[in-house]
Design goal:
- The chain is mostly helical.
- The chain is built from 29 helices and 7 strands.
Length: 604
């Protein structure tokens, strides 16, 4: 009986551990006949290691076979530097399997899938990059996830930057952009999470006190600047603008700059610096780092749609904060028209939702710019802005009354600003004082700076509405209209004059900070003694676009009518002939008319 029970137990064990190598898992403990001494010879560390390995084996067994095959195929594609296969696995396979198996849970940990890839450390670093990106986007990362994602990013960039010579690795452009983009997003997310001191547990406070350099601004900026320096991307861009030959460029940029991996990482790091400096509030430096990047449809960033949209969003926002509204409007119109043209292709992208959200925020920023610097722009964009933000736009055109609308749209559309200085977690004496009197939130600080500019221009819409009615106007009469004395009226006129002038890139200057002073308003005036003389320049409406849009709309309506089924004639009650007889007896006959196409008579 005992032997029968033992056979059943062994059968169950074989079934449960069919994928586990027992020799590897538990070694030769207890095999020498000295069972009583086994416990004393297994120390706690070894026992934990055994338990961990057993847990990993159990987790490995739970991975679906299709996921195992995908990871093995993905690994082989990376080993072979097969960009086509890597692109399909990265953009399609990973996302499809995520939706099917891991939409609400983590992917298997790297240690669990390590046997599938022969413990290839480089692939495991790349796998962890995808793993933590999934945790941040679909789940709620805890402090361990935040710390470990930083460590994995450090391992990846150390491998790329500190290896002996360029690394033998090729990745698609989309993945390279996503690596830089996700690195900055995780830094931003950590800074926002770290600043919320009241919600931290004692354990989290202790870990944050010890890990002061984790996700520090210095370490993030150091990575981005190091990639730019290693790839010599700025020298590459300058050489291209100077028209140098490929051989001369290769000599300038060296062995790293000629490799697509380093060249693209360096280029995307410039866009990353634009974003980081914008998040930190240094808008001038953000545009300065873009000095050698040309904003046109031939630039490399346009090959990755998410990078293209991000670049124009942050450039436009920087221009708003620098009070260069015409340049901001030009940037937003350019990218929003691109998104409208390419919308049918965006639906196929796994980043479609993110692109749409960013576009919606840019429409809000465009409404702000157009309220502060009215100008005639593309009708397509203007119509969409009126549909989405028509109510706020109307309020923003009413001076002081529109301040809440400006605040609402700014807080919705601005980036999630961060502060470079963390709370004093390492100082137990300063932390309570910090909690009691926290500093102003970065977003609120930038909002107050922006609203100060808006309030300074608050009298402009009212004053503008009066000036548009006249070609010349007595100063005292204008002061009466404004319910102000002449001195206040002159101050308001000077505010309007200042608001209607801005630095703008008129002749497509090289740097994004370069430009000339221009008048941004179609209304100008001069004060001559006691008279205000007004000159209004009208811009002719562009009828070609209006006719094209309405012709296309009429064609769509006509096509819809042609494709619609014919209506079914209603059936009359009873038999047909009596009804016809009754109709003929009650309806007088019409004579002297011509028969027309739909069967009735037309009067002569």
């Amino acid at each position: 009986m005992a032997q029968q029970r033992k056979a059943l137990w062994e059968a169950d064990l074989d079934e449960d551990l069919q994928d586990v190598d027992l020799n590897l898992a538990i070694g030769s403990y207890g095999q020498n006949g000295l069972y009583d001494d086994v416990q004393s010879r297994i120390d706690e560390t070894t026992l934990l290691a055994v338990q961990q390995q057993m847990a990993q084996q159990q987790a490995f067994a739970q991975i679906p076979d299709v996921v195992k095959r995908f990871i093995a195929h993905f690994h082989q594609a990376v080993l072979d530097n097969n960009l086509a296969e890597i692109t399909v696995a990265y953009e399609s396979g990973w996302n499809r399997l995520t939706e099917k198996f891991y939409s609400k849970t983590e992917w298997p940990e790297a240690e669990v899938i390590a046997p599938l890839v022969n413990d290839d450390q480089i692939f495991l670093i790349l796998y962890r990059e995808l793993y933590y990106r999934h945790v941040y986007s679909r789940l709620n990362p805890d402090i361990d996830d935040r710390f470990h994602s930083y460590e994995n990013s450090c391992e990846l960039f150390n491998y790329l930057l500190n290896s002996d010579g360029p690394v033998p690795l090729e990745l698609p452009e989309q993945w390279l952009w996503d690596i830089i983009d996700e690195f900055i997003y995780q830094f931003q997310s950590f800074c926002v999470w770290r600043s919320k001191v009241k919600s931290k547990t004692d354990e989290e406070i202790a870990l944050l006190a010890e890990g002061g350099q984790v996700w520090s601004s210095y370490s993030v900026l150091n990575v981005l600047y190091s990639l730019i320096q290693k790839s010599k991307i700025n020298e590459h861009l300058v050489a291209l603008q100077q028209g140098k030959s490929p051989e001369e460029i290769a000599e300038i940029v060296g062995e790293y700059g000629t490799r697509p991996l380093y060249k693209l990482l360096g280029y995307f790091s410039i866009i990353g610096l634009l974003r980081v400096h914008s998040l930190l509030g240094d808008f001038t430096l953000a545009l300065k780092v873009m000095e050698n990047v040309e904003l046109n449809q031939k630039s490399p960033f346009t090959r990755v749609t998410a990078c293209h949209v991000t670049t124009y969003y942050y450039v436009g926002f920087c221009y708003i904060m620098l009070r260069r509204y015409p340049d901001a409007i030009r940037a937003f119109v350019s990218i929003l028209n691109f998104i409208l043209r390419m919308r049918q292709y965006h639906t196929r992208s796994y980043q479609y939702d993110q692109i749409n959200k960013t576009a919606d925020r840019m429409y809000a920023l465009f409404a702000i710019c157009n309220a502060l610097s009215p100008t005639r722009v593309d009708d397509n964009i203007s119509n969409i802005v009126k549909e989405r933000y028509g109510e706020q736009f109307a309020k923003m055109s009413r001076g002081e009354e529109g301040i809440p609308a400006f605040e609402e749209l700014f807080l919705y559309a601005c980036p999630k600003f961060i502060t470079s200085n963390p709370p004093p977690y390492e100082d137990a004496d300063l932390l309570p004082a910090y909690i009691e009197d926290p500093p102003v939130e970065p977003a609120q600080r930038h909002l107050q700076l922006f609203l100060a500019e808006v309030r300074a221009q608050a009298p402009v819409p009212t004053l503008r509405s009066f000036l548009k009615l006249y070609t010349s106007l007595d100063a005292s009469k204008l002061a009466n209209f404004l319910d102000a004395d002449e001195e206040d009226m002159v101050q308001q006129l000077m505010v309007m004059k200042q608001a209607s002038r801005s630095v703008s890139r008129v002749d497509n200057e090289k740097g994004l900070l370069d430009g000339q002073w221009i008048s941004t308003s179609d209304l100008d005036f001069v004060i001559n003694e006691n008279m205000v003389h007004i000159a209004e320049s009208t811009v002719g409406r562009r009828y070609a676009g209006w006719f094209i849009r309405n012709t296309e709309h009429a064609q769509r309506v006509l096509d819809t009518l042609r494709n619609a089924p014919l209506p079914i004639p209603p059936k009359t009650a009873g038999t047909g002939k009596p009804a016809e007889a009754a109709a003929s007896s009650t309806t007088p006959a019409r004579t002297g008319g011509k028969q027309v196409a739909w069967g009735s008579a037309k009067a002569a």
